[in-house]
Amino acid sequence: EKGSAPAIPVDPRFDIAYVTPVTIGTPPQTLYLDFDTGSSDLWVFSSHTLASQVRGQMIYSPEKSTTAKLLAGHTWSIRYGDGSGSLGNVYTDNFTVGGVTVTSQAVQTAQQVSTSFTSESDIHGLVGLGFSTLNTVYPNGQLTFFDNAKSQLDSPVFTADLKWKKEGTYDFGFIDETKYTGEITYLPVQTDPGYWTFTSSGYAVGDGSFNQVSISGIADTATSLTYLPTAVVTSYWRQVEGAVNSQYYGGYVFPCSSKLPSFTFGVGSANITIPGSYINYAQITEGSPTCFGGLQSSSGLGINIWGDVALKAAFVVFNGGNPPTIGWARK
Ligand SMILES: Cc1cc(CN)n(C)n1
To answer: How much is the ipTM here?
Structure first.
């Protein structure tokens, strides 16, 4: 089996996130979910979510699905790196994305969500694509959609082809050679504690010299920006006149009129170049001449995160084989 589904930018002005249509249950209920390689819970806005916390999101109603089964006595609660979170109960039901169906997928129904989820009407939940060890369901952890689907896929892989302010795709079970140029460079993955953690071989700012330095970080499709060590980020923003690291705005801001240099990162002996335009992330407020950078320091996070600003510059293969590896190609 194999399948393909669109990755649609939420608020294409900024690519805050990407959502993908899925169907759950019988008859099928359609929701648009944020596929997240940086976590491993599949949760949805539901008929159980506090009404005061739902604002326009599509919801999953297990009571309307003839194939839904309550996973009795199981609960979940998750907190993300940006401080957002949600919690609730668990059902199993049929779950389909891009024509690939998993019967009895654990679908975590939210009873409560934090304000940032309530205010984002285009995101109806998340599909965790990290390793199942990160799943928060208690007392028995559940498997991700990818772990459940793997055995029925032609190849135990999924790929991310995210795009700048345009619709991209997630493919399951195959590698679409038309989606990239040159070769795919595969790197080892550290699966503990459960992220797609890999080591980049260094970086260059604009057409400057390449700095060979190992940068270990996670590939995270549900983090909008890219967060790297302070030394790397400082050397980037030093090239932009008027860029400052603002306490007030919580990161590097710069004059929107700036022409930003590109940022190149090493993957083995190859490399991926992020165009400067991708790093001009957004005006700090509508109409402001000050813009917020897509490349920020990871010093407060304790982990480096290759988020959408980096991923959308590449074709990325998440290989769930034995051992798992991650593949990068230019496109
Ligand atoms: C909701 C959400 C997901 C992620 C990345 N794993 N973040 C930072 N926030």
So the answer is: 0.96
